[in-house]
Amino acid sequence: MINIGIIGCGTVGSTVINILDKNSSIIRKRVGCEINIKKVCDKDLSRIRESGLPEKCITDDYMSVLNDPEIDIVVELIGGKTLANDIVLNSIEKGKSVVTANKALISENWDKIFSAALSKKVLVYFEASVGAGIPVIQALHEGLAANRIQSIVGILNGTTNFILTKMTDENMSFEAALKTACKLGFAEADPSLDIDGSDAAQKLSILASISFGSHISVNKIYKEGISRVSPLDIKYARDKFGFVLKLLAIVKTEDKRIFAAVYPAFVSTEHPLSTVENEYNAVYINGDSVGDIMLYGKGAGGGSAASAVVADIIDLSRNIYYGTAGKFPYVLYDKRMKTKIQDISKMNSKYYIRFSTVDRPGVLSKISGILGKRHVSISSCFQEERQRGQSVPILMLTHLAKEGDVKRAIKEIDDLDIIKSKTVVLRIVE
Ligand code: HSE
Q1: Chain-centre distance of CA 206, in angstroms?
Q2: Which residue from 64, 191, 237, 403 puts its CA 20 to 30 A from 409's CA?
Q3: pLDDT at 246 exceeding the cut of 70
């Protein structure tokens, strides 16, 4: 029998308890022995009682879980970084393996956690931290282990995907869509972490660190959120070019250089990521042997996250039962390894650009002249009809161009007197 202790009995914790109960016979077969919930800790004991566990399993003292010598696996589901960090490091120190859903903790404390796990020969699993029930961490570790990962493009934040879907399909305002996302329960307690790309950057940090074998910290990841996105560009890009806007988390190699970024970008309606709507997440991976694959599913919510947490508990329990736990590390961790992330100014991308200009002879040639001087080549151009007294929108798509060149060109163009308001630049991902 494998004994587990669960710390945190909110939506995910209580769903984990429920799955372990309702699927116990199939889980026992998959592990080889029974998984026993020995203790559940929450500061609100009534939340645990609702799950129907006997009183002897219930505690509000997390140290009683960590100090229980019979507990093999600690499941950390309280979130946050301070107490969760103590719980995880303390559990490792006591020789217990850990399952966590905590993206902030794992992405920030990668080195600390995995060096401790390596030296204590225990395992730390974290499948639910990215894309909840989508088994992307397992896929990168195992199913895609033969490949050099060339790119990962993820829709890793359900809240922003929900907002952009509603803005695109239902003309809903940003504010109304955000309010609905908060009501539906998949936004963070502080939704600015969703909107500004922080949540997606934490998840990308985890995927990139696994793929490249060393910690790629969140502060190395370039980040732009969706708060400045205008409904006008969503509409123009869809009507004129067949694009949809997504908040994408990207890590990719270009000529052996690695770039990592989170930003809103257009994808064509032909791209599989364009079909990922509302709170759904997807991860589109290119490996040098497998080519393109896409994993898709609900990236938030009790059922989805608990599915991943229980999968981790099962795999860990199997390892403990067969005596292989900690014989080899789960995360390839070598503190001497460093992955250099390049500055985004050197990254190549295609661009959607919207200029607001006066309508007079020579405007297009001035704009295209500056773009050309900076090696930015135009692939398509569209000018909207002029409304009396208003500026004219000129939409352009570019071929691949360097981010730094595009930024310099736009800065120069925005200084011209023909430009009526700040030019909008959004990347296009193919
Ligand atoms: N706030 C997150 C999201 C929840 O919207 O995707 C899952 O991490």
Answers
A1: 8
A2: 237
A3: yes
Ligand 1 neighbours (beta carbon < 6 A)? 157-159, 186-188, 194, 199, 299-300
Full-model pTM: 0.96
Counted residue by residue, the chain has a size of 430
Residues spanned by the domain of 418: 346-429
What is d(CA 248, CA 264) in angstroms, rounded to the nearest whole number? 6
Active-site residue, from 166, 203, 223, 246: 203
pLDDT tens track for 185-212: 889 999 999 999 999 999 999 999 999 9
Does 139 map to a domain? Answer: no
CB 269 within 8 A of CB 242: yes
- Determine how many CB atoms are found less than 10 A away from the CB of residue 412: 14
Mutate to test the pocket of ligand 1, among 100, 105, 157 (most ligand atoms within 8 A of CB): 157
Judgement on whether residues 232 and 278 belong to the same structural domain of the protein:
yes
Q: What is the CA radius of gyration of the chain?
A: 24
**SS3 category, 163:** helix
Task: Look up residue 94 and give its amino acid.
Answer: K
Q: Which residue has the higher pLDDT, 333 or 161?
A: 161
* Residue 162 sits in the same domain as residue 196: yes
**Are residues 294 and 310 located together in one domain of the fold?**
no
Query: For the segment 55-75, what is each residue's pLDDT rounded down to a tens digit?
Result: 999 999 999 999 999 999 999
